Amino acid sequence: MCSSSRVASVIAFLMATLAPIDPLSAQASQANVDQLRVALKALQQEQQSTNSKIEALEKRIDELDGGNALNSQSRVSDASAALMRGRGVGGVADDVQQPVGDQASAAAADEETRKAPAKSEAVEAVTQNQQGYFGHSFTIDPGISYSHFSNAQLNLSGFLALDAIFLGQISIDQLDADVITTDVTARYGIGRLQADVNVPYLYRRSNFRSGGAGGNASGLIERTITSRGLGDVSAGLSYRLWKETTSRPDVVINVRAKAPTGRDPFGIELTEVEGSQGNLKIPTRLPTGSGVWGAAAGVSILKTIDPMVVFGSFTYFHNFKRHFPDLDEAVDDQPGEARLGDAFQYGVGVAFALNDRSSLNTSFTERLVGHSKLRLDPTDPAPEAEWQTIVGSEANVGVLNLGATFSLTNRLTLLTNLGVGITQDAPDMVFTVRLPYQF
Q1: Using CA atoms, how far apart are residues 75 and 354, in angstroms rounded to an integer?
Q2: Helix and strand element counts for the chain (H, E)
Q3: Residue 424 has pLDDT above 60, yes or no
Q4: Contact between 43 and 6 (Cβ < 8 Å)
């Protein structure tokens, strides 16, 4: 019997009870009253049980619909919510058909995502900086970087007498270089794919100093030259192979191409500094690019272990050979081809979230660069010349990075990083500030 029918029965019994009662039927009426009380008590108990079930159901539905206490990353799928709504509620059967095939796989993936902890804004900023800005979003990322290099070299021009006495000229050359790079990176993400373009602009300042000028041990001479201009523009594509879950890391593969839009370093003439008596020669200009086309391919991996984020990457760089009308610093042009050395780079690091909006990170990167080679054009009828290896062009660039990330707003992030060179070929220091903004 449904609840409305039972209510009608109770009302009927009440009306019968309130009607005038014959003394002869008093005993029968008392029996009806007792029966009515039993039915009323049973109805009240059933109504109380139904109200409890309704309250529990409404609370569960609010949780499934993503109330204020839950974020979007911890919500279950619509199919799971529908199933949970139908279990033991108002006569709906408990044996609802479970998803099969592709639906089961989707449900399992959704369950895996639901179990993943929600990332804080600081952790999300670290993930985007290391892996990329995926999803339907457009990001403008302006930045500025300052690098400082210093190098000292002892030059000897003469010979040893009696294996102990040096006869000739001794000079100490010192080079201090500062490079300020301002660049803008535009990124656009579509689902698992991200495309980006980077445009840099460089300002270079180099100070050349030499001791022992003109054969005088205390003689010092120096010159400073500056240069500025567009650097090498690059563009890249990144694809998120796997998105991070509780059991697997975030994996992104990427490719990149670099165009020789900057001023190349080949064919720059050297001029003798006046008064140095040939002891100090400096270039007439400073390059702002590599001069050759380049390509790179790599993979990056990231895993969140709250409140820590562990990440790593590996990249291969390839430079294509290119012909130049002049290769060396001699006065006359020497046309030929140049092939810069390929390079491998790996990096590992860890970030710690201090709170919801800030984090600290440290990482180490090392790039191993192969020898560069030159080949002059043949002079008829001479055969083609062999490739000549440039002595000292091989390099090992190792940098220790210390950085901080601050989520200023939901769209704006401040990234800072200080790099310290720990190998001879690395810059002494690199300080970088970036402000990516998501539209």
Answers
A1: 26
A2: 5, 20
A3: yes
A4: yes
Q: What pLDDT score does 8 carry?
A: 59
Share above pLDDT 90 across residues of the chain, in percent, rounded to a whole number: 33
Instruction: Say which residue the tokens 């001023």 belong to.
Output: 263
**Please, which residues bridge with residue 350 across strands?**
310, 362
Residues of the chain with CATH 2.40.160.40: 121-438
Q: Which tokens go with 267? A: 């064919």
Q: Which CATH architecture has domain 121-438?
A: Beta Barrel (2.40)
Nearest to 375 by CA among 392, 356, 389: 389
Q: What is the pLDDT of residues 281-339, one digit of tens each?
A: 888 888 899 999 999 999 999 998 877 899 999 999 999 999 998 887 777 788 888 99
DSSP string, 304-345: EETTEEEEEEEEEEEE--EEES--SSSSS---EEEEPPPEEE
Its pTM stands at 0.67
DSSP track, 233-293: -EEEEEEEEE---SSS-EEEEEEEEE---SPPSTTPPEEEPTTSTTS-EEESS--SS-SS-
